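Notebook, bench 3.
Goal today: get a predicted structure for histidine kinase from Streptomyces termitum so we can plan the truncation constructs. The sequence was checked against the plasmid map this morning, with no discrepancies at the termini. Length recorded as 403 residues. Pasting the sequence as submitted so the record is complete.
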Amino acid sequence: MTRTVRHRWLLPSHLVEPDGAGAGRPRRTVRDWTVDVLIFLLAAGFGLLAVDASARYDGEALVLTDQIVGALACCALWLRRRAPVAVAAVLAVTGALVPAAAGAMLAALFSVAVRRPFRDIAWILALALAGAVGTVFVRPDPETGAVLGITLGCVLTLLAAAWGMLVRARRQLVEALRERAERAEAEAELRAAQAQRLAREAIAREMHDVLAHRLTLLSVHAGALEFRPDAPPAQIARAAGVIRDSAHEALQDLREIIGVLRAPGDEGGGDRPQPTLATLGALVDESRAAGMRVRLDSTLDDPGAVPAATGRTVYRIAQEALTNARKHAPGTEVTVLLRGRPGDGLTVEVRNPAPDGEVPHVPGSGQGLIGLSERAALAGGRLDHGTAPGGGFAVTAWLPWPP
């Protein structure tokens, strides 16, 4: 990595221009015009004060010359964005000879301090200080002594340079904070996308396992028919019905897996059964055995009537919500609510009150809820999570349940 790239964050390209900058610059904005007009007026006002002071002891011809040169110096400030170093160098020499150009010189020095690297600031500042000292002897002011004139000139020059460097440092700080915020936002989006991808892969693996399980059952019954072609018609009809139902369910599962990728090289058997809504009670019992207080409130008469894919999604949502409650709200009573009927959809809600006292901080990635939202969206439903109205935390999901 080169030196320029390594220090880019210190001197952003739009704050500190490279050598020879100016060609192809963007057009001035309204803010740029406002700043340029303000600096022009300040430099002109400073020049008028200098002309008024010199008119007390200089001749009319010299005063007229000061006015003309001062006006040209102020007009040269309109070129400071295109060639700041050149304008500042010319005005530093001019300011040493013509006091009316001192205001324009300070403005040009300020622009160099804001926009240029330190090596340019250093020699322009040295030239300006030399001009501030030289103008005391070239155009002495009878009303002020040499020491006071040199002190005032040097102080004003150093203040202009310091102010410009302070403005540049502030701009660099703001730019660094903006880049850091954008980088953090990009990383958060990347983590969210990764969580969604992992959720899709998990769903694909589950669907793969379920599909393999159904096809295995289909193969077993088909093999039985092949092995016993002389079986009673009732037994053959029953086996054919099982084959038909298994094939129909396998097709439904296959439709759900379309568009969802399976992680490459993943190991795992394809014949292990997957959790459904009928096994939600076992999950609640397992949580109770682990020391949690869980209350299951369900209005479903037959959990087995819920589609298998919907039941698996509900199971995973309840599992993740119970895990989060165990980590972040230990000792509270967790309520799992199940409501719904065919045609209206299925609603599952897991909520817990706020824990009493101080809870030890348990680090978490925050990606589990993102994965659940992705899982619910893939199932055609939606998931909401956040602080409950009465305090605590609640996870609510709605999933379609065909009639």
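The chain has three domains: 3-184, 195-257, 277-399. DSSP finds eleven helices and five strands in the chain.
Flagging this for group meeting.
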